[in-house]
Amino acid sequence: MSDHLPQRSQLSRRSLLRAGGLGVLGLGLAGCGFSQPATASPAQTDKPIDVKVDGPLVYFNWADYIDPSVFAGFQKEYGVKIVQSNFDSMPGMVAKLDAGNKYDVIFPSAKYAQRLAQAGRLRAIDHTKLRNAELVFGSYPYFEDPWYDPKSAHTVPFTMYKTGIGWRRDKLGALTGSWQDLWDAQSSGTTFLLDDEDEVLGMAALKLGLDPNTSAQGDLDRITSLLHTLRPNLRGFSSDDYNNLLDGTATMTQAWSGDMVCVLNQAKDATLYGFEVAKEGSPINSDCFAIPADAEHPGTAMLFIDYLLRPENAIKTIQYLGYPMPVHGTESTYAGLVKQLPQCMIEPGDLKPSLYFRNPTAAGAQARDTAWTDVKAG
Amino acid sequence: MALRTPVRAETPAGGRTARRDRRPRPSAAGARIWTWLTLPGTVWMSVFFIASLLLVAAISFGTTDELGDPRFGTNLGNLKALADPAYRDVMVRSLGYALLTSVICLLIAYPVAYAVALHAGRFKNALIAAIVVPFFANYLVRMYGWSVLLADDGPVLRVLRAVGLAGAHTKILNTGFGVIAGLVYGFVVFMIIPLYAAMERMDTSLIEAGRDLYGGPLRTFLFVTVPATRQGAGAGVVLVFLPAMGDFVSAQFMGGPNQIMIGNLIQDKFFEGQNWPLGSALTMALMAVLLIAMFGYLRRARKDEAEATR
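Above: the input entities. Below: the structure tokens describing the complete assembly.
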């Protein structure tokens, strides 16, 4: 064995190349993992879930989404532990799932719920097994058959939000209720757009009367040239909408309705702030609960979803998070939270499929991404 | 004259090679041990660096499927997409920012390293610790902190306005100044440490010799200290330039729409854009630019070394 070792004190180029070969092996292995994400057969994903404690709950969500007292209450009532982990973006969530991590309950946005459901990555959820499902589907019939998951067969809606304009009333006065307000010369130099491809392209599309999900080249060209007229007014692209408003960096920003509740909660003087949705249409979105196909404790996950839908727990979540949930009996709580900014309210009639961000085709996604780079990089 | 003779005597022509030859030749068994000891490092680098690099190179020829997941392929579209002038402009801007950052870091680090290495006495280690310890905190968190401090209604501008040093419309956030300040703040320590090491190693009698030859403090610094420590400066420039060029954090927190750097675009491709192949192609382009810069540096460094050993 030792005879074959190079008789040199330094690594030769050849041994480096050999080491490179090892690398190629690693590449091959990694390649397998990513070109064939685990998909479960329909028989597996459709298997009914036995609603009972079947182990600790492995919870996977954005950070700080649920009041810690709700977790504590669930752990106490069911005598089961919650193992928490967080993602920082939807693609990050999918990447973790693809890598084979097992979670019991996840919280995808509508767009990602559709992707995961279509790819056979979500367990079917039988709503009749959830005691509180009627509070959702009875009062918000839209969710009985949403575009992203026919018959809500794999999901239960969690929170809802819309995108509008947040602004400083003391600096800009009243606005006109149109996306045109973003072009207001008064706020030039302190105007922000969200650092979000869909939201920015969607805003311009709605202003032009186009489909917010368009990926037609002609539409995208009109969108980018419109946005280029806004760029000189912009101070930045930032999704930290509420901090930008609170620390005075922004006098006007594209903003998510739920984030405005943070502004109201943290501002010294909440009357300084306004929030409006645009008459041309404001994008609407919702997140949902889902159970991955390879979840090890789907029974506990069902109990957890049901627990969060109890109005008293939903109210705590809404107060903690600032986003409304489509749960009957919580509406007045949310109305109270946003009394100052009533446009944050989401009525069942607001949930229009045409105002949701959807999944483009692969080619469409690339065309949109090119347009976004054009807008962002100038 | 009196000084020069002993210096010459210490380095006769060929003196170095003569000394090298005196070093005992390693035995075959000893050599084998060293080879084995490099194994963990080689495996580690192969798996986590070379393999991921090859993976990035492979994906840059790939496509995305309907789920947004990357697929391997033989598609040249991503490399062609790099011809978009937007990428070229952003790349040039990033180069400019990184160069400017390196120069500013040099200007800040030279006096700091000089003072600490040559005049700090027993406080030397405490000062080095004071410089390094803040950098143990995560860069992202520190930059986020700065963005709060430097906000329009934040504490820094409020104080500056109160004492009349800033007008009502003075801004720090979302400006080119902010981004470069962030980069300098983030990476200056990588310049101070190699310069400090070079000055520590420097023979201080060279400075005395400079003074003896009627060089003023500034002339001695420029013509004796700086040349004697230029290898440390070179290493520092590389250590600052490379991460500054690929940085996205500073532009994210301190920049506006006209300060976007190549790192921000790459990050976009891997996250919201769901276009890993294009992100990979951009990464390869960035690496090519950096390799060219590194190559220039290495050639220069080798020439320096050749001169030093002559």
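Note for the figure: Residues 188 and 196 of chain B are 12 Å apart (CA to CA).
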